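Render Putative hydro-lyase P4U43_00030 in 3D.
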Amino acid sequence: MISWSPEDRAAATPAEAREAFRNGLVVPTSGWSRGYAQANVLAIPREQAFDLLLFAQRNPKSCPILGVLEPGQTAGPLLAGGDIRTDVPKYTVYRNGEKVDEPTDIGRYWREDLVTFLIGCSFTFEAALQDGGVRIAHIDQGVNVPMYRTNRQCAPAGAMSGPLVVSMRPVPAAQVADAVRITSRYPAVHGAPVHVGNPEELGIADLGAPDFGEAVQIPDGHLPVFWACGVTPQAAVMQSRPPLAIGHAPGHMLITDARDSDYLVP
C-alpha cells in the first residue's frame, strides 16, 4: 500500500483520496485534499428518511445538508464516479440504535431503499483556520478530532431525537476571535463555534475522555473551542433506534468534489 505523507494527503485530489480508501486505507481524513469539502455520511431507510430530513431542517447548525442521494443511489455530483459504499475510510453500522460493525466497505449491508444524506463537516474550514494562523491540534498531534455528546438536546422531528454533539479544537486565547470570524463564513459546514471555554456548561465532564475520536493535549494559554458536529444525527440514531442506519466512522469522512470556497460566504 502507498505510504501517504502529510504533504501527499493534503495534495491528493478527492478522486485519489477516495480511491485510496476504496483500496483499503483506513485513516481519519482531517488534512486530506486541501481545498475540498468533506462530508458526514448517514444512510437510512426511506421509511425514516423524512424524519431525518426534518431533523436536519430543524437543527441546521449541527446538520447542514450538502446533498441527498435518492434511494439506492451510490454516487452523485459530490462524488462523481465514486461509490458511497466503498469511498469512506471506515463506516459505522447501527441496528436498532446499537453499533454492530465498523467495516471499510458496506456492500453487504446495502439496500435499495437506503437514502444517503451528506452533511457538512468542520474539517472543511480547517484549511482556512490554518491560513489564518490558527494551528489545528489534532492534525499537529496526529490524532482524530475529539467529539463529545452535550447536555443540549436538538429539536426533535418525528421519531428522531438526540443530543447535540460537538467537536473541540484548542485555540490560543488571543486567536479565539479570529477562529470565530473565520469559521462564521462557512455556515454550510457548521459555521461559528457554539461555545468557548468551560466544557462543564455543555455537560462535558472530562475533555480527556471524548465520546468519539481521540483526546488532544491542550497547551497552556489555549481555550477549548466547540463547534457543532455532524455526528449529531448518529447520536440521534442511537437514541431513536431505527432498524438500520449506516454512517461514516467519526472523523473518517467522505471527501467530496466540492471546493471549500463553494461554501464560503462574504
